[in-house]
């Protein structure tokens, strides 16, 4: 649970920083375009944009570190684009099977970490399947959501090749599954949102 809490805190940090910039930018955009403001739609759009920023912070934004050196008082900002622990897996279900059939001596801890990885990879992407069809009518069909989910997750894994993060085809499978689960939730709850979607 501490690992999940750590990721949530990191995502919230980016979302909180981005919130005032989003509000200012959105207000300027709406005034410039003279668009009618629908409060419910604007709230959902804001939540979606902040979610995407939080998701990006943990997937496609390179790891970085900043601070002030105690000895010299100099400011430093380091970006890490290489990681010796990063790996590439192109064999479907290879990593997933390892989660279930491991010979690791510390089975209890590994099992907990495996569950976090599986559940996390699925449900961190489920909001896409919920928010997107609520906000855009043209993307309210299952084939379009499935294609969107697959495209987004493939893009993320491709970017991770160049920023020192692991790339895994099983992440694509689990993340896309999460988008589909999110879409299922949208289908069950879609009626109150039918009138607020963008065309």
Automatic annotation (TrEMBL):
<feature type="domain" description="VanZ-like">
    <location>
        <begin position="48"/>
        <end position="189"/>
    </location>
</feature>
<dbReference type="Pfam" id="PF04892">
    <property type="entry name" value="VanZ"/>
</dbReference>
<feature type="transmembrane region" description="Helical">
    <location>
        <begin position="145"/>
        <end position="166"/>
    </location>
</feature>
<feature type="transmembrane region" description="Helical">
    <location>
        <begin position="115"/>
        <end position="136"/>
    </location>
</feature>
<keyword id="KW-0472">Membrane</keyword>
<dbReference type="InterPro" id="IPR053150">
    <property type="entry name" value="Teicoplanin_resist-assoc"/>
</dbReference>
<keyword id="KW-1133">Transmembrane helix</keyword>
<dbReference type="InterPro" id="IPR006976">
    <property type="entry name" value="VanZ-like"/>
</dbReference>
<protein>
    <submittedName>
        <fullName>Glycopeptide antibiotics resistance protein</fullName>
    </submittedName>
</protein>
<feature type="transmembrane region" description="Helical">
    <location>
        <begin position="172"/>
        <end position="189"/>
    </location>
</feature>
<feature type="transmembrane region" description="Helical">
    <location>
        <begin position="12"/>
        <end position="31"/>
    </location>
</feature>
<feature type="transmembrane region" description="Helical">
    <location>
        <begin position="43"/>
        <end position="64"/>
    </location>
</feature>
<keyword id="KW-0812">Transmembrane</keyword>
């Amino acid at each position: 649970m501490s690992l999940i809490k750590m990721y949530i805190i990191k995502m919230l940090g980016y979302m909180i920083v981005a919130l005032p910039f989003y509000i200012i930018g959105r207000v300027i955009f709406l005034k410039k375009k003279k668009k009618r403001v629908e409060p419910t739609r604007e709230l959902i759009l804001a939540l979606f944009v902040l979610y995407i920023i939080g998701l990006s912070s943990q997937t496609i934004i390179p790891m970085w570190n900043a601070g002030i050196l105690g000895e010299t008082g100099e400011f430093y900002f380091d970006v890490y684009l290489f990681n010796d622990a990063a790996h590439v897996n192109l064999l479907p279900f290879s990593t997933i099977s390892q989660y279930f059939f491991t010979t690791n001596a510390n089975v209890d801890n590994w099992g907990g970490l495996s569950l976090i990885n599986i559940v996390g990879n699925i449900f961190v992407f489920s909001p896409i399947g919920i928010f997107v069809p609520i906000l855009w009518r043209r993307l309210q069909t299952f084939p379009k959501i499935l294609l969107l989910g697959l495209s987004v997750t493939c893009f993320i894994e491709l970017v991770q090749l160049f920023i020192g993060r692991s790339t895994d085809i099983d992440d694509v499978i689990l993340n896309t599954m999460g988008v589909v689960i999110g879409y299922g939730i949208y289908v069950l709850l879609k009626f109150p949102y039918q009138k607020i979607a963008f065309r």
